[in-house]
Amino acid sequence: MKRILVTGGAGFIGSHLCDRLLADGNDVICLDNYFTGSKSNIVHLVDNPFFELVRHDVTHPYFAEVDEIYNLACPASPVHYQYNPIKTIKTSVMGSINMLGLAKRVRAKIMQASTSEVYGDPQVHPQKESYWGNVNPIGIRSCYDEGKRCAEALFMDYHRQNSVKIKIIRIFNTYGPRMHPNDGRVVSNFIVQALTGQPITIFGDGTQTRSFQYVDDLIEGMVRMMNTGNDIIGPVNLGNPNEFSMLELAREVLDITGSSSKIIHKPLPQDDPTQRKPDISLAQEMLDGWEPRVQLRNGLRLTVEYFDKLLSKA
Ligand code: NAD
Ligand code: UDP
Questions:
Q1: Of the residues 12, 60, 69, 74, which should be mutated to test ligand 1's pocket, given the most ligand atoms within 8 Å of the CB?
Q2: How many structural domains are present in the chain?
Q3: How far is it, in rounded angstroms, from Cα 97 to Cα 158?
Q4: Which amino acids bring their CB within 6 angstroms of ligand 2?
Q5: Helix (H) or strand (E) holding 51
Q6: Is 204 among the domain residues?
Q7: Domain containing 169: what range?
Q8: pLDDT in tens, 59-96
Q9: CATH number, domain containing residue 92
Q10: Is the pTM of this model over 0.95?
């Protein structure tokens, strides 16, 4: 049995990761400051004797004896990470330094949840890990993008300088049950709007693209990556290469929900990337043939079911 620390464990992805790690027979410490996460995401785990919940902010040091660390703590949706941008950068940078310091002290393996945002508004399509990106360093998204880029640099330097065992994954847009209904991300926005009969808000003309990955596929990739040998450090893209425009996504959500919500257009936010699609050949090669299995339509159905139940309780 391994003792595993999951920072950001009460969030959308972190809570699914805690479920999986416990199901695999591990001892899990879930650390979160509840900025965007919620106890309701992990309430079903609190009676499990192998699960420990800690209220803590990763910008402060944390001490525990652990074998592995998954560092997920960081708000992920533009609305949330722009709410207090200085805190967002501190979370990525100081949080990484604290967790890397912990990994160094206890010789734990540590994984950084990096992001496709390190590619910015990419000029190379699809994005391979070797692409260095096109990020505006002074824009309103930079608190997130540059924070995550700095975190990657820190991980690499702790690895080179202190031989810390690291893994870096670059996660592409992921969706599924337990997304925050108000976090402003496109999948949750469109589903909640469709279910409540509000207009579907497309930013810009809706031709911008994203590639949406169902959360279970991501979790499988994360666990496989953590279990690779010490020679594999990444960064490695984890995403679903099927690319959709926001207009296509809106139509799919309307079709699945049977909603009569109208589509309306709102201004495109500053620095909004025009296209995004992962090249996942490295992940397929390094992670034993890993690839996403859940098609958008099926994943959306499961997510709609979740929001439907959530909204009917509210
Ligand atoms: P989320 O907002 O649901 O989860 C983030 C969690 O981190 C929340 O529980 C939040 O309370 C916690 N947190 C934030 N600041 C903290 C701090 N200072 N100290 C302790 N806890 C803190 O978002 P998510 O979608 O689950 O994202 C998890 C991770 O995956 C993030 O690091 C994010 O950058 C990364 N990621 C997510 C996506 C995606 O599409 N969901 C894409 C790329 C990368
Ligand atoms: N978007 C949209 N309507 C919304 C929310 C988002 O059209 O109500 C667009 C947004 O402008 C972006 C895409 O959907 O082009 C994905 O946005 P999200 O915030 O989910 O993720 P990110 O931009 O970080 O990939």
A1: 74
A2: 1
A3: 9
A4: 77-78, 173, 185-186, 189, 201-203, 208, 210, 246, 268-269, 272
A5: strand 51-55
A6: no
A7: 3-174+213-241+278-293
A8: 999 999 999 999 999 999 999 999 999 999 999 999 99
A9: 3.40.50.720
A10: yes
